[in-house]
Design brief:
Number of helices of chain B: 13
Shape of chain B: globular
Strand order of the largest sheet of chain B: 1-4
Structural class of chain B: mainly alpha
Structural class of chain A: alpha/beta
Strand content of chain A: 15-25%
Distance between the termini of chain B: 28 Å
Helix content of chain A: 40-55%
Strand order of the largest sheet of chain A: 10-9-11-12-13-18-19
Shape of chain A: globular
Number of strands of chain B: 4
Helix content of chain B: over 70%
Oligomer: heterodimer
Distance between the termini of chain A: 75 Å
Number of helices of chain A: 14
Largest sheet of chain B: 2 strands, antiparallel
Order of helices and strands of chain B: HHHHHHEEEHHHHEHHH
């Protein structure tokens, strides 16, 4: 009896050690070196003493960049679009968009894709999977603010891995209190989007009363709050502040209650399908109220679900027509996108994702140490400092200058589009906004 | 227990427990009911006496109540499916919300095709009859399969086993729909005849809400007739009373159980189309929230009781719509409508404290 127990224990130990060995052996791509090797071969960098160490890329091995985007479910159109933008940036490393990948400092660049699930849970799971991989240089993501705020931004910052978001817009992410040191974004801050929507409703349309409905996501909450702050500061009155659960279907009683206050405009910055259902039900209950959604609503799904009720509904979005003025975007980028994906863009943030990759490449080029034998040493803290120092970079989304708190889109043009003239598949892809305004971060509240 | 020899001790024990337990329980209940009554009265009073600009107008209240009643009618139809199965088998069919979803989603393909060909607006009655038939057939098929595959083999297992199976079946059906039909929300077409309003008693009421209410009431009436007046209904009641004795009396229990699932499926299919027509959309997840609400309605009304399910459905629908603005606005609670579940589940807990069997239930607590 006793023998058997000891044997069993030994067998267990043996199995566990085999599993452990198997796990640690497949680490051939890049290797995290906290000390001696990096310091010895890197020469200029002392990887032992710098915080977060360095990333070593062996000769002939690719540089791995993670993506943590919403690539499944209701919001997949958002994440897959950004993923295509990142892929095109790798293609463009050789200076041409020819579906042949270029190289960075003599190394291939590859993407490792994880799903952020457009939720805090998804950000946690995908974030930990990527953060546990020592060969990851930086991560493009997340798609949804809920996956980043307090979740992925913290996971990666604790490890010294850059997280660059192409589409997080929640103001909290780059606020004084909550900003994580390795987090930055090329998407606009919703303080700007909220302010421009408020300008459209109050100044352009001359409407002085409004109500807001937001779901439980930090994205919707932040945007509704930014709108309210600016609208009230301009002299408008908010008649109702309501919140919903994004899984709800029946908004009838809620909308009846809101209609009681007779708001001139109803602002509902949510995701679909809630966004489409609100628009549809509000069209019956308050036919004279101006309905306006956000860039989360502006998608093909909205037009399909809301049907006829979609007509006349407004939505704000980064103004594509500004990018389209750039010859590069129109004549090279979009054709390459179509060739890669097969359709017109399903969202707008592919452009932000492309720019995010490019400022990352520039930062890598400025701090990576070539060891002479084809291998690279990239100190993580220096990489962070270099990318945060980005200033005056001419991207396809405009001029990119990163602030200390990680906002890289400092001058933002937001357009307001009227359905069915929405610039998405199923709408009218070439349509122009009915209102467009450019603001910089220091101009808004 | 051989307690015949100690009658004195037994009486004391009873008296002691009566002294110790009953008054405390009664005091707590009394305090609780006074507090709730005060909250409801003060909240409603404050809401109704808000200054003219802030108060809800009569038109708004009417709109809210109409929506609540019509939503309640749909809850009632689904709740009947829960309650029928519970009455016969003493199990909660948690997959019933998915039976509802399957019917609605399958009928979407017909409704969509008819809308595109113009048939839906040319002859709406025929088109709707076919759409309802498709939904009902699908829901009945799913319900019967569910019974045959997931529940019948476990009929004599401990009660927790079919409960867990039901939850598993619910997830299975959801993911099947997700795989077959995709994750996107689809726009469900509504014939133009049902757009707009009818004037009833001098007030405009959305046509679709009227249709929902009328169709539900007719369905419930027919169900009541079947259960109370027909031979099938008699055998259902007999099986509900005592399965073993019923089978000794020559009733085929399996047949009766299948019939129960068929009736539940018919009601769920009808409810599915009504729901889809009201909100003009379907998705694979649409059964979850109405399913939970309907289950709540069934418990509220007294699970196992047909009248209870209908009453519970309407009560819940109206409570969800009217409760938050009426009770909370007066206290200046921000975003009151978000708290509809808080209001309804508080009511559920209270009803169960005072009447453990539900509004029309037997008055006894049931353990599930």
């Amino acid at each position: 009896m006793k023998h058997r127990r000891v044997l069993r224990l030994l067998a267990l130990v043996a199995v566990l050690s085999l599993v452990g060995a198997a796990c640690s052996n497949d680490d051939t791509g890049g290797e995290e070196t906290g000390g001696a090797t990096g310091g010895a071969t890197g020469g200029a960098v002392d990887c032992a003493s710098v915080e977060f160490g360095c990333l070593e890329v062996a000769s002939g091995e690719p540089i791995t960049i993670g993506t943590l985007l919403a690539i499944s479910g209701d919001t997949a159109s958002l994440g897959l679009d950004s993923q295509a933008g990142a892929q095109l940036a790798i293609d463009y490393l050789d200076g041409t968009l020819d579906q042949v990948d270029g190289q960075l400092l003599g190394h291939d660049v590859q993407l490792q894709n994880e799903d952020d699930g457009c939720s805090a849970d998804g950000g946690q799971a995908g974030g930990q999977a990527l953060a546990a991989d020592p060969s990851i240089l930086a991560v493009i993501g997340t798609s949804c603010s809920s996956a980043a705020l307090g979740v992925a931004d913290k996971i990666f910052s604790d490890k010294g891995i850059l997280l660059i978001s192409p589409s997080n817009t929640n103001p909290g992410l780059t606020s004084e209190e909550a900003h994580q040191p390795f987090y930055l974004r090329t998407a606009h801050n919703d303080k700007i989007q909220g302010a421009i929507v408020s300008d459209f409703v109050y100044t352009e349309q001359g409407i002085t009363t409004a109500a807001t409905i937001n779901d439980e996501s930090p994205y919707a909450d932040g945007l509704a709050a930014a709108f309210r702050d600016n609208f009230e500061a301009a002299g408008g009155t908010i008649t109702a502040v309501e919140a919903i659960n994004s899984a709800d279907t029946d908004f009838g009683a809620l909308l009846e209650g809101i209609a009681n206050g007779n708001p001139g405009a109803l602002y509902f910055p949510d995701f679909n399908p809630a966004c489409a259902l609100i628009a549809q039900q509000a069209a019956d209950i308050m036919p004279d109220t101006l309905l306006i959604g956000s860039d989360g609503c502006l998608a093909t799904d909205f037009l399909e679900t809301a049907g006829d009720a979609a007509n006349g509904v407004f939505a704000s979005s980064p103004d594509l027509s500004v990018f389209a003025n750039g010859d590069f975007y129109k004549n090279e980028f979009i054709p390459a996108y179509k060739e890669l994906v097969g359709t017109d863009p399903t969202a707008v943030f592919h452009a932000h994702s492309f720019d995010a990759m490019n400022i990352l490449f520039d930062a890598v080029e400025s701090v990576a140490v070539d060891n002479g034998d084809g291998s690279l040493t990239i100190p993580r803290q220096a990489l962070r400092d270099a990318i945060f120092a980005t200033s005056g970079y001419q991207g396809i989304t405009g001029t990119i200058t990163c602030t200390e708190l990680g906002d890289c889109a400092t001058d933002v043009t937001i357009g307001v589009f009227e359905a069915p003239g929405w610039p998405v598949e199923g709408g009218e892809p070439d349509s122009a906004p009915v209102f467009s305004e450019t603001k910089s971060l220091d101009q808004v509240l | 227990m051989a307690n015949a020899t100690t009658p004195a001790r037994r009486t004391t024990a009873v008296r002691m427990s009566a002294l110790e337990r009953l008054p405390i329980r009664r005091i707590i209940l009394t305090v609780l009911s006074v507090a709730i009554a005060a909250f409801v009265i003060v909240g409603s009073y404050k809401t109704l006496t808000l200054p003219a600009g802030e108060a809800y107008t009569w038109d708004t209240w009417r709109g809210i109540i109409v929506r609540g009643v019509s939503q309640g009618a749909i809850f009632a139809l689904i709740a009947l499916g829960y309650t029928l199965v519970y009455g016969i088998l003493r199990m909660i069919n948690f997959a019933h919300g998915e039976v509802f979803m399957m019917g609605a989603f399958t009928s979407f393909f017909f409704a969509d095709a008819y809308a595109k060909s113009g048939f839906l607006n040319r002859s709406p009655v025929t088109a709707l009859l076919i759409i309802f038939a498709v939904a009902v057939a699908t829901s009945v098929g799913v319900a019967v399969l569910l019974e045959r595959v997931a529940y019948r083999p476990l009929r004599n297992a401990p009660r927790l086993v079919p409960l867990i199976t039901a939850i598993g079946a619910s997830l299975f059906l959801q993911q099947t729909a997700r795989g077959f039909f995709g994750t996107n929300t689809q726009g469900y077409p509504r014939p133009e005849v049902l757009d707009g309003t009818w004037t009833i008693l001098g007030f405009p009421v959305d046509r679709i809400r009227v249709v929902v209410l009328v169709v539900s009431l007719i369905s419930m009436g027919i169900l009541q007739y079947i259960v109370a007046r027909t031979k099938t209904g008699k055998s259902m009641r007999a099986v509900a009373e005592d399965q073993e004795i019923a089978s000794l009396m020559g009733i085929d229990v399996n047949r009766v159980v299948v019939k129960t699932f068929v009736i539940g499926g018919i009601l769920a299919g009808i409810a599915g189309v009504l729901f889809a027509l009201t909100f003009e959309s379907v998705n694979f997840f649409m059964g979850v929230r109405p399913g939970i609400s309907a289950f709540t309605a069934a418990v509220l009304g007294g699970i196992g009781s047909i009248g209870g399910a209908a009453l519970g459905g309407f009560t819940l629908g109206v409570l969800q719509a009217v409760g938050p603005p009426l009770l909370l606005t007066g206290f200046n609670v921000p975003s009151p409508f978000q708290l509809e579940d808080v209001v309804t589940f508080s009511v559920l807990v209270l009803v169960l404290i005072f009447r453990p069997g539900g509004l029309l239930g037997s008055g006894e607590a049931e353990k599930v």
